[in-house]
Amino acid sequence: MAGRIAVIGSNNVDLVTTVARLPARGETLAGTGFSTGFGGKGANQAVAAARLGSAVTMVTRTGDDGFGRDMRRNLQTAGIELTHVTPAPGLPNGVASIFVESSGENAIVIVAGANGALSPTDVDRAASDLARCDLILLQLEVPLETVYHAVAVAGGLGVPVILNPAPAAPGLELARLRGLGWICPNETELAQLTGLPVGTPAQIEAAARALFAQGLGNVVVTLGARGAALVTAAGTTPIPALTVAPVDTTGAGDAFVGAFAHHLAAGDAPERALRRASAYAALSVTRPGAQSSYATQAEFAAFLATQPSTVQS
Known about the structure:
By secondary structure, the chain is of the alpha/beta class.
């Protein structure tokens, strides 16, 4: 049975330029294509979970502009509950300028816009709906005080929290995040959170264990094409990635986190939820865009049917 998830976080309109390679400083290059789409780490994770069948409510601020109205329609189309999706008067919607190389790798510049107006008060207004959720998802594209407050509110409600600590925030106060159910950094974020090297698998495990020891919940380190690693009190479990031909890696990390949340909320064991999340992210990189690359439940089931039994189980 599908679970209920709340996502407290960002939304952005993506402005995507495709290029053979990224320009050097001071260099002008001709691009090979341009498109607009919808993104933001919060909205991406919400859409991924909703497409897989979770009941998703989002707490976010949209812009007082055309992009903001477009975003609201996009979230509604994805099946996300909009009660706590509110415009920020006088502010533009968040935007992300994304440059995608022919290899599929990308570089991104984000302007927060209305995301910077998401406040602890917005979280408090949503408390009655948060209390009905199986999981709450957080990221770091909104003010840190709002993130800390959301963790505290969730703790008071007894609702587990998954924090995706992205983008890396140098001023993040880990002591104010104690009590998380899960924290899901990538390698770069893990290094910044712990101050430890992450150049080898042994170093990654040591850094993840150091993070776990701070009371931040179970640790899932995403490793891109190398899969992920789950670190709990019981030990470390590698989660393999599927081998695919990447088209566009934009939003793959969010696909992973959203799918992980969906499967956890549905009652799957963590290892199974992570195997499914890894497969969902792999499917996403074979398609262009962020949210536009996220499969529906039926599409994902068809993809899984082509994979080894270890992925399907």
